[in-house]
Amino acid sequence: MNKRTPDGFNANHGLIRRFIQLNRAAIGTFGFFIVMMLLFFCGNPHVFSDWRIYYSVLTVLPVAIFLVVPLVFIVTVGEIDLSFPSVMAFAAWIFALGVQAGYPPAAAILAGVAVGLALGSAIGLIVVYGEFSSLVATLGLGFLIRGAIMIATGGRSIAATGIAKDPTLRLLSSSPGGFPVQMIWAAVFVAVSVILYNRHRFGARVHCVGDNPESARQMGIDPRLVRVGTFVFMGFGAGLAGIFSTIINFTWWPTAGDSYLLPTLAAVFVGGTPTWGGVGTVLGGTIGAAIVSFTQVGIVAAGLDGFYVQFFNGLIIILSLIGHRWNQIRYR
Fold it and tell me: Which of 101, 177, 207, 326 has its CA 20 to 30 A from that of 251?
């Protein structure tokens, strides 16, 4: 039975309307995703009616999600991070070394995550307390970390084929019933992040600092600590991304993470997080990651050359920027 307010207004309709207003960006992104997939299906029904095309994307999509979600926090707080691909590679390197040396998988995972957290903390402290531009500073730190990896490894990869036989690691990446289990872990990560972003004190402070640092300071919030915290979370996500990437591919490459820089940035902005800070959407970013991932395979599967991928990625980003500008007053 529908509940009504004293003036006869349907309360359920009010809740639905409020839900749509609060999640307008994510809902719009999801609608775009549905339209895009319908176009791909019409372009090649034979391919897009086959589960294998979806399986191939879902297998690696968690890696992108682990990067996109923390980057939503960073963009919301008013910063940017271009070093996360290098952090991802470094954390994955430590994990691969641990597996190769015969350490327990849990210890190797903890080591990789710890390195990601440490690098994220260091980058955040340098950017925030050094009062550097996050764009330039993280770009330089990314090159520095990547260069250290190349010097230490000589550009050689690490084969970790033993991962395929380890029961513990197969809990993180396997395909029981034909569905990649790593998507379940990614879903848990997204759910926790949504709560952290929308319902937790840390998320509220991220929004406040991104919208107006001076007002946040007057409310007793230390903007510097909050900004550093977002970089720490980015290091955590990058560490998970590197570990899962190595488990999925059974190999670590010194160039790991490089191919995720632009697609991750695109997913954040396509997902409905604008560039000016203070607002954003974790769910939208997750859907944006799916859009970018399916775009890369969908264009080729639909019969177009791979050269169209960058064109359509650029088109999607421009359209998202136009949408953000059109909605800017409503966001505020």
Answer: 177
H helix intervals, 102-222: 105-129, 134-153, 167-170, 182-198, 201-211, 213-218
Is residue 43 left, alpha or beta, with left meaning phi > 0 and alpha meaning psi from -120 to 50? alpha
Q: Give the confidence band of 136 by pLDDT, cuts at 50, 70, 90.
A: very high
CA distance 266 to 68: 9
Delimit the domains of the chain by residue range: 24-331
Q: 24-331: what fold?
A: ABC transporter involved in vitamin B12 uptake, BtuC (1.10.3470)
- The pLDDT tens digits of the residues spanning 166-178 come to 787 888 888 888 8
Q: What is the pTM of this model?
A: 0.90
Q: Cβ neighbours of residue 232 under 8 Å, at least 6 residues apart?
A: 117, 120, 121, 124
